[in-house]
Amino acid sequence: MTLAKTLKLVIGVTIKVRFEGEYQASSATNETLDALEQAQDSLKSEHIICSVANASNPGIPPSSLMTFLQKNSHTSGVVLEDFNSVFSNKFYHSHLDDTLNINSSAVVAAASLVARTLYILASDNNTLSSSALTAINVNVSLVEELMGCLLGCDPGLSCNLVKNYISPTNTCPSHYVGVIPDEPSSTPYLGYVDDVSRFLWNFLADRTSIPRENSSSTCSKGCNNGEVCVRAETEGKGVCVISTTRYVPAYSTRLKFDSEAWIVLPPNSSDPMGMVDPVWTESNWNAIGLRVYTVQNGAYDNLVLLGGMAITVLAYLAIVITRAFITKSLKRD
């Protein structure tokens, strides 16, 4: 029996009150839902089912939409999830949340659905090509390779895909958010950027780049305006490509960089996000170490003491017996 991959929709819509007293979703949300339904129909052979979440669903699952809703509760949005009424990942945001909790088939299904939905929304109904729509497919092997490279230590960042773009400093990918030791910039000093961020930037810049006329231009000759250098850490020393991929520094809304220094702004009662936004700093230690000593129990210490005493007594007896034997032998001579 073939099991269908069910993607539930949890919808945050803009509610408008009609004169008749009925509630109606925004036109943008309805258009998105129609595109999702059309994309689902084109994926029937993949057994992908997309349906509205159960009425007992507690609300929006953990997602970036939460941030927008906290700022404006009437923001329209659609969230794709693989559960209906209960959040399925019980190890969410813990050290146990690893690759065993991620279903690559669900990731591929969601990516296929979203890609075709975006194509439908970006196309005019009159120019929408069914053949072009069905030609949009997700590279399954690439998804699995990315999961192996970015979500674990085997192979981790030592995989060929990562080494094709950067020279990683560690094998295990770090999911630590990091700090901003310098001014916020879209072109930061790469020494401050971790392995995962550098790889993702190079990977996205390469995959979203526009081919240039002179594809053999290396970064050593300098890149033109509007171009970026990818694979700069590899042996080929990188090539220039036309891409809009940029680093976007993410920091607290209560922080401001002014006059070469960070300034902590006072909380603003009119800003609900600023009131709950934690502001914290970190030391400039290059490495944090921990030294652990093993303490033996008392029984082991007593055993060592008795063993030492026994060896001492036996050694004394051996010396006495040996001395007596030698003395007796000398008297005979």
From TrEMBL:
Domain of life: Eukaryota
InterPro entries for the chain: Nicastrin (IPR008710)
Keywords of this entry: Membrane, Transmembrane, Transmembrane helix
GO BP term, example: protein processing
Keyword hit for Chloroplast: no
Membrane-crossing segments per the record: 303-326
GO cellular component, one term: plasma membrane
Statement: the UniProt record of this protein carries the keyword Transmembrane helix: yes
Protein known as: Nicastrin
Species name: Quercus lobata (Valley oak)
